[in-house]
Amino acid sequence: MILHYGETIAAVSTPRAAGGIAVIRISGECALNIADRIFIPVSTSKKPSEMDGYTCAYGRFVSLSGEQLDDGILTVFKAPRSYTGENVVELSCHGGIYVTERVLRSVYELGAYPASGGEFTERAFLNHKMTLTQAEAVMDIISAEGRGFHRRAVNVKDGSLYRMIKEQSDRLTAVLGEIGAWIDYPDEDIPGLENNALEERLTDIYTGLAGISSVYDNSRILRSGIDTVIAGKPNVGKSTLMNLLSGCERSIVTDEAGTTRDIVEESVRLGDIVLKLSDTAGLRSTDSIAEGAGIEKARKKILSADLIIAVFDNGDTLDDNDRQLIELCKKTEGIKSVACINKSDKENRLDKNIIEQCFDNVIYISAKTGSGIEELQNVLNKLFLTNSSIYNEITINERQKICLDKAASLINEALDNIKSGVTLDAVNIVLDEALNALLELNGERVTEAVTDEIFSHFCVGK
Ligand code: GDP
Known about the structure:
alpha/beta, Gyrase A, domain 2, Rossmann fold, 3 domains, seven-stranded mixed β-sheet, 16 helices, binds guanosine-5'-diphosphate
């Protein structure tokens, strides 16, 4: 990633597509001077550089040769009260690709550099407008597809994760300070440094960090969608259910058993969560090579899923294929499963008691009429979004989890050291490394290489 420290940067912050409005963002020392050259105010007599921060004006955007390119709104944010902490100007022009590029080209001709991906947010971080975890949450808010993940990302953007980490790093800093004092004055009695008290304090920090880290699996699922397999023997209504959930005819629905031979995938939003749905080949014993390969794929998919929606036919008696599915669901430890007894509009012939004994969540639906889908939505939202943990309302990413786990395991090592009588000087070194991991997580002690890597995943204009 090319960064332009100290330079003025510019980029289109809206998607590169025709739309009502496009926003070009300029940030840096020359932002206002550039704006003075390409904007002729109509609604005010003030040039952009004379305008107050947080004010806007209507006017015309012109090229360097004076050609009128468009009319629109210019908004001024003055340092340090702006997104990046620098002078920022936002030009809202008509959202055509050509017109936007012409206005942007004029901005570049006046000396601004094309911003790299995430460069505005990186400047915000470097200028202390936000912490590193808050900056990362900006991308999460942009990429959120469902309310569950979005709500958590907003909380992290508001600083909740930062504060949780800071609480633990402050506690660790206090311990380290006291150990440092003991190293300097070993004959002094420092309260809180008796082995038991020290172990208790470190165990508390460890528990706090492990609690935050435990959010990761749920964060991953909510961030990228819940990998969901719709499984069941042929003809139970898997494709009909998939079509109902995705609101369109994606899977092939026929009365002929064994029609879905391969895996059909679709992302759908159900209430506050996003399901990455796979409608698989019906699970049954077969002599057909093609169908057999599809069934094998389906089994593998089930074993790597986050959620299995096991579908049974209310109008049919339970057979060996159903029993195999029940066994498969029982075997898949760690994978959540919900039994959907489909065709509830038909007369009941299925032994429901057996299903109810084997699954914690059983729902009666009719994929054909849509009845019971709300109940399915409620159960899934409860399964993935309800958690009594105090850390439930945040999300963490892989980088953050690696830092957390590193810190936690070093604290554990320090605890082992204390128990086995290692001196506090040595314990101090291990704990100092744990603190470093937490400071890197929060961005308080982080290398340029790490921040560059983080922001390189951002989109241009952000
Ligand atoms: P799959 O093989 O499991 O994917 O099953 P399909 O979705 O292809 O459905 C098989 C047959 O069952 C089709 O004729 C569907 O119209 C029918 N079907 C699906 N869901 C229902 C339902 O809720 N009620 C009734 N009566 N028929 C259904």
